[in-house]
Automatic annotation (TrEMBL):
Any GO BP annotation: photosystem II repair
InterPro entries referenced in this protein's UniProt entry, alphabetically: MPH2 (IPR038862), MPH2_C (IPR049072)
Top-level lineage group: Eukaryota
Domain Maintenance of Photosystem II under High light 2 C-terminal, chain residue ranges per copy: 49-160
Name of the protein in its database record: Maintenance of Photosystem II under High light 2 C-terminal domain-containing protein
Lineage, opening ranks: Eukaryota, Viridiplantae, Streptophyta, Embryophyta, Tracheophyta
Amino acid sequence: MEQTRTVSWVYDQLSCVWSRGELLEKVKQDRKKRIERRAVLNSAVNEKGYLQDLVYKLSKVGQAIENNDLEAACLVLGKGIDTGWVKTVNLAFTKLFFFLLFFFNSQWWKVETFNSSLASLITSVNKNDRESSKLAFVSSASAVEKCTSLTGLLGHLKGI
């Protein structure tokens, strides 16, 4: 009986040590991922700038839509999704998400959601459709917030 208890006690202690080892390994892996993510964000100076410009533009567009001045919103956004700043922002998100997808199994569909909502915003503003512009603006702003949150840039950008 005593030997059975001792074996059981030893088994419990070994499984506890094993669990601690697994836990320690998981902590090490999580730390490594955080360090890698931080390194990407620190090296993404240009991307941060492009995304900060996007936040600024969306802020101006939101103010214009709120004031029912779709002409001003149109001037900020441009005539279509093929403008230089839109391509640059898409490239910045794509670059950041590609890394995050590769290393962290991030949610790639968020970039597509952003692209779609921004295209809807530009289209509705250019069509002078106030209601659609309001809805598309909210959708775009929400998509930007989600994308920047997933990339870890939410705290690095002003105005979100």
